[in-house]
């Protein structure tokens, strides 16, 4: 597909219903069974880090958001990227990568240090994501550990103060606060 004209904007509450419909079309109606959704339950997306792409007609054709999470036993703070989605008939025109680059730049400007996601490594490697070493961090639920990826927004942010990689479960802020 050829490249197209689009622009990226902060997502507003007025966009929410259309974004949910776009997510249903891009991921399918069973999308809420994915493990990323376990981390988003009862949370709101990080303020100021939800963006949409609009085509030249003004229609929403892409979306990205980020969520606060805590990593492993140490509780290292990070943000979870996703969902990232592009309208099925507008995919492969550069919208996804543009949304991701925009979101990552905004996250860096807001002083976030580390991004985590579950996704296809070859795609996310295009913006610098690397695979989380196996047998370290775990997402809740069943998922392929090779799809767990990270991106340091500040050099060394993935390494804990002990000099090791974080290990254990990835939790939402509410579950981290409620830990035994
Ligand atoms: C995945 C998704 C967000 C990508 O957005 P997009 O706008 O279609 O992708 P872009 O146009 O920005 O990027 C295109 C490039 O990425 C590559 N690419 C796209 N999806 C890929 C994948 N899953 N694995 C590897 N490469 C991929 C394309 O081959 C293309 O490479 P090229 O530039 O070298 O030709 C989009 O296809 C989508 O919404 N898919 C359904 C929902 C989904 O799976 N979201 C991601 C959850 S992990």
Polypeptide structure, described:
This protein has 180 residues and is of the alpha+beta class. The protein has one domain (6-177): Gcn5-related N-acetyltransferase (GNAT) (Aminopeptidase). 23% of the residues lie in helices and 28% in strands. Strands 1, 2, 3, 4, 5, 6, 7, 8 and 9 form a nine-stranded mixed beta sheet that branches. The longest helix is centred in the middle third of the chain and has 15 residues, at 95-109. The relative contact order is 0.19. The mean pLDDT is 94. The protein binds coenzyme A.
**DSSP summary, beta strand count:** 9
Assign an overall shape. Answer: globular
CATH class: Alpha Beta
Element string (H = helix, E = strand): EHHEEEHEHEEEEH
Mean pLDDT: 94
Count of domain modules: 1
* Portion in helices: 10-25%
Query: What molecules are bound to this protein?
Result: coenzyme A
CATH H level, superfamily name = Gcn5-related N-acetyltransferase (GNAT)
What name is given to the CATH topology?
Answer: Aminopeptidase
End-to-end distance, in Å? Answer: 51 Å
Give the structural class: alpha+beta
CATH architect. name: 3-Layer(aba) Sandwich
Low-confidence stretches: none
Strand content: 25-35%
Helix tally equals 5
* Computed CA radius of gyration, to the nearest angstrom: 16 Å
* Largest pleated sheet: 9 strands, mixed
């Amino acid at each position: 597909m050829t490249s197209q004209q689009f622009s990226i904007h902060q997502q507003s509450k007025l966009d929410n219903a259309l974004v949910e419909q776009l997510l249903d079309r891009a991921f399918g109606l069973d999308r809420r069974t994915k493990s990323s959704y376990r981390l988003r339950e009862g949370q709101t997306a990080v303020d100021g880090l939800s963006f949409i792409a609009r085509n030249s007609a003004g229609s929403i054709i892409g979306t990205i958001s980020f969520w606060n999470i805590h990593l492993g036993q140490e509780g290292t703070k990070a943000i979870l990227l996703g969902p990232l989605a592009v309208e099925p008939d507008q995919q492969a025109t550069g919208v996804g990568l543009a949304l991701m680059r925009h979101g990552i730049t905004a996250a860096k400007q807001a002083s976030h240090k580390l991004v985590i996601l579950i996704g296809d490594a070859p795609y996310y490697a295009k913006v610098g994501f690397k695979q989380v070493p196996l047998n370290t961090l775990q997402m809740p639920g069943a998922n392929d550990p090779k799809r767990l990826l990270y991106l340091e927004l500040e050099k060394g942010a993935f390494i804990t103060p002990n000099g090791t990689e974080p290990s254990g479960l990835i939790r939402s802020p509410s579950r981290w606060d409620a830990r035994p």
